[in-house]
Amino acid sequence: MTLLADQTSEQVNTESLGDQDNNQTVNETPNEGTQASQGEQNAEAENQEPVGAPEKYEAFTLPEGVEMAHGFEDKVIALSKEFNLTQAQAQKIVDLGLDYQTTISDKYDNSMGEVRKQWVSDLKADPDFGGSKFSETVERAKRTLKKFDASEDFKRELEQSGYGDNPGFIKLLARIDAATGEDKSVNGGAVKAPPKTAASVLYPSMGKTN
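Predicted structure:
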């Protein structure tokens, strides 16, 4: 109802009072809203993650059985501090590095597997150490390792690197066995040979005088 409408003085007074009450309610509403907004902001501030680099980065999360390459963690920490990265942001760099590391490792394993197959084929085809002598050559190499690598540390390194299939290395070990132990012919007969040291086989001129 507008001011131009027909109404009594009592109606006008009642409506005026109603308008005042409404105005008071409207004026109070923003205050309540402001208080609620401040409370929400405070709650968000409490739940917000720290911004910037921490004084010390915590240990990074790694997949089970996976190790970072030597020195990689130190480089991540130095880079993260330089760019003021949070713990979570630094972790993302670690994750990216591990993905790359795994990719390179898989490619190496696949490539090395092909190389090892070729090495075995080459040894089997060798006229002096392969063919019918292949099994004997491998046994000689194993005996040399057993004799001079009692802890088997070197043997484990050869297994992990794949170089335990390297034909040149296997032939070298077989030669050492033939020179330092009982020389056995292909048909199984034993021929006594004077024992020699590994050094005398590798460096025959050592200890000789003119």
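Summary: Helices lie at 9-47, 72-82, 87-125, 134-148, 153-161, 167-180, 198-202.
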